[in-house]
Give the backbone structure.
Amino acid sequence: MTNTTRQTCNDEKFMSNITHLECSVCGKHRPAGQIHNLCECGGPLLVRYDLDRARATFPRESLRNAPSTMWRYAPMLPVQEPSAITSLGEGWTPLVKTSRLGARLGADRLWVKDEGVNPTGSFKARGLSCAISMCRQLGVKKVAVPSAGNAAGATAAYAAAAGLEAHIFMPQDVPQSNFIECKATGAHVTLVDGLISDCGRIVAQRKEAEGWFEVSTLKEPYRIEGKKTMGYELAEQMDFTLPGAIFYPAGGGVGMIGMWKAFAEMEALGWIGPARPKMIAVQAEGCPPIVRAFERGQAKSDFYEGAETVASGLRVPKALGDFLVLNAVRESGGTAVAVNDNEILDSSLAIARDEGMFIAPEGGACVAALSKLLASGFLKQNERIVIYNTGSGLKYLEAFATRFPRATASEQDKLGGLITPR
C-alpha cells in the first residue's frame, strides 16, 4: 500500500462505516469482523453500512484530498484495520470520451471506462484488493479460487502482496497470460479439463480439508465491495450525474451488482439523486444464460450447456448472483443482449483503430451490443452512454491472433516485408 493511501486511511474520517452483513435472499444478518462465505440458505452476503453516520462524516467534498485509488472511498468499504489494506494502486481508472467510435456508431456522447489499466490488467484487481485485505484483517492464511482467468491473476498478485498462500483452479484453455502471471506471483495453479463451474466444484470439495478460504465470486462478501467502486468513480468523474445507460459484460455480473449497490449507497449519502442509468447486461451468444433468463421473464438463469466464446470472462454457464443482475437490469429499465464472437472481435479491433484503445473481448462485446441497441432504437443518439471495458486486450493475444496470422519468412520476403541483417 502506498504511503498516501495509508495516511489517508488512518485519518479518522476515512474509517469504515460497516455495521453487519445481510443475506441477499433471506435477509438474515450476520456480524462484521468474522469469516463468512454464503448464508445457510445459499444466498450471497452483502455488506451493510451505517449510512446516517457516513452521510454526516463523509461528504463528497472530502474526496478532494483522497488518494487516487479505489481506497478514496474507504469509509464505504469494509476494512476496519488500515494496516490490513493490500493495495497495488487499483482503481481511479480513466473515463475516456470516444468521439470517433461514437461518430461511427451514431452515439454523440459515448465514454469508455477503461478497467484494463488496473494493476493486474482487469477490473478484478478491485475486488481482490478488498477481499485479500479482509483476509488479512480476519487472519486467513490460505485462499482458493476458481477462475476463467483474470480473477486468478488478481488473486495470485494480491495474495503475494499480502503474504498469503493462493490456490488457483482454471480451465486448461485459459489465456496463457493468466496462467503465467499466476505462476510468476507464486500461486499454486491447477489446470482443469472443463469450465469455471468444474473448477468451482473442485474448490468446494477440497477447501475444508485443505484449510482454504474460498474467494469465489459472491461466495464471500467482499469482492463485490471493491467492484462497486466502479460506480462511485463513474459518478464522481461525471460530476455526480449518472449517464443514461451503462453497458457491462456480465459473466458473473458482480460488477453490475456492485454498481447498483453503489448507486443506492450514494443516494443515501446525498451524493446523487434517484435517477438511474439503464443497466445493460452483455453476454456472448456462445454462453448467454442471463440473456435467456431476461428474455423468458425468469428470476434466475438456467445452467447453459456447451458454453464457448473467445471472451473467456463471459464463459460462465451459471452465475451465483444472476438474480441480482436481472433485478438491476429490470429495475433500471435496461436490457440484456448477446453478441457473437465475430462481432466481439470486430468491435474490439474497431475501437482500437478508432481510439487507440486495445480492449478485452468482453469490452468489445459491449461495443457490439451498443451498435445493436442504437440500430433498434432502444437507445437514442444523444443519450449519455458509458461502456465498461473490463480488461486489457494484451491478456487475450491468442484470441486476437486469429485475426492477424503471421506470414512465413518466404511469404514476407516475396512481399518485401522481411529484412535480413547483413
